[in-house]
Design brief:
By secondary structure, the chain is of the alpha+beta class. The protein is about 30% helix and about 20% strand. The protein contains ten helices and 17 strands. A five-stranded antiparallel sheet has the order 7-6-16-15-14, sandwiched between helices. Strands 1-2 form a two-stranded antiparallel sheet. A hairpin with a 2-residue loop joins β15 and β16.
Length: about 375
């Protein structure tokens, strides 16, 4: 009886939380609340040992003190054209970045002359390097093109794809990691270091400012840029059914936000991270959010910044970033609107729906919970 009462109290609580969000596109809030209610009905509490992990949602205003109410521990937002710093919170503080590390890994393998049409077979070595991370759909003995592996690494954040790409250019995992550190030095990143190529190591660290530099370098690459810009992709393993990848940053896409590229990251120490390039009202903005406690809160931070930018047209102090030197600018095709959760993210507590379009200053929700038991990297 108590279990049933607890379950239905959670269902009603999540459904009622949607009513707190007074927003023009309330359909997103209702859909998120329904999804949360179904999740709560199936999983009234998570248990690790004897301690139950209960999700607690709280109301978060989109603007605080005249600035976007960003929830990330460390963050930075810059004007993509001028390099002006519009918002920052500990922008040069080193933190684990998890799978954002894959930006550097893919730059290294491209520098080594990766054959995009070459085939690589997933080996036990790849599986061992990725052990402890999120579940992979690249199975032992599966043969895929290197082009597909790049999409798996950048869009699906698949850990096995990274050492496989390294082998394709004759680099061991340690050699690939050394190349990533050399690439960081080449880009002028003084607070970025790597201990492993996937991002599973908590010693892979960077800052909001420097993750933006890495993303700019990837987006300016003629091959990697279009990959980070893509929302969906079908990989075609030899002799096997296609694998559909949905970009892990897809929940950031809204009617007033065009996403040009980005990379998510997650492990138990890094928490939920995101570096992303957006176009808001036709103008480019780069954002980095490190150390969010909610899986969707990082995307809520993007929404809050977008609404603030649209409403307040802020002017920041010039703070130019070093420009990447390699590659051409990525194409800017218009992306479709969508908020569906990506299939490759590890399971996590329910967090906030994306914040509303910038027509009025309204509230959003966020969630806090004890750390999840898994340490998947995304």
């Amino acid at each position: 009886m108590l279990t049933r009462f607890f379950r239905w109290s959670l269902v009603l609580g999540f459904a009622a939380s949607a009513l707190l969000v007074n927003r023009p596109d309330g359909g997103h809030a209702v859909a998120a609340a329904k999804k949360a209610a179904k999740h709560a009905a199936r999983h009234p509490a998570r248990v690790r040992g004897k301690k139950a992990i209960v999700v607690r949602e709280r109301y978060v205003a989109p603007i605080k003190g005249g600035m976007p109410n960003v929830q990330a521990r460390c963050a930075m937002v810059i004007d993509g054209d001028s390099g002006r710093e519009l918002f920052s919170r500990s922008p040069d503080h080193e933190r684990p970045i998890a799978s954002i590390s894959k930006l550097a890994a893919t730059l290294v393998v491209m520098d080594k002359g990766l054959d995009l049409d070459g085939l690589t077979t997933i080996s036990k070595t790849d599986i061992d390097v990725a052990r402890g991370g999120a579940k992979s759909r690249l199975l032992d003995g599966m043969t895929v093109s290197n082009r597909d592996l790049l999409h798996a690494a950048l869009m699906g954040s698949d850990n096995r794809a990274v050492p496989a790409l390294g082998r394709a250019v004759k680099l061991t995992p340690s050699e690939l990691t050394a190349g990533m550190n050399a690439k960081a030095a080449e880009l002028g990143l003084k607070h970025t270091r790597f201990r492993d190529p996937t991002g599973l190591s908590t010693d892979n660290v960077s800052t909001p400012r420097e993750t933006i530099v890495m993303l700019r370098a990837v987006m300016n690459h003629p091959v990697l840029g279009p990959i980070t810009h893509r929302l969906e992709y079908d990989a075609h393993p030899v002799g096997r059914p296609p694998i559909k990848y949905v970009n892990t940053y897809k929940p950031a896409v809204r009617t007033n936000i065009q996403v040009m590229g980005g990379k998510t990251g997650y492990n138990d120490d890094a928490r939920y991270c995101l570096v992303i390039a957006t176009r808001i009202d036709g103008h480019p903005y780069f954002m980095s959010f490190l150390g969010n406690e909610g899986k969707l809160t990082r995307f809520g931070d993007v929404a809050r910044v977008a609404d603030w930018v649209t409403l307040h047209k802020p002017k920041g102090t010039p703070a130019p970033l070093p420009e990447p030197t390699a590659g051409d600018a990525v194409a800017t095709e218009k992306l479709p609107v969508g908020v569906a959760a990506p299939v490759d993210e590890p399971a996590a507590p329910v967090d906030e729906p994306a914040a509303p379009p910038a027509t009025a200053a309204v509230g959003t929700q966020t969630a806090t919970a004890s750390p999840p038991a898994s340490s998947g990297v995304h």
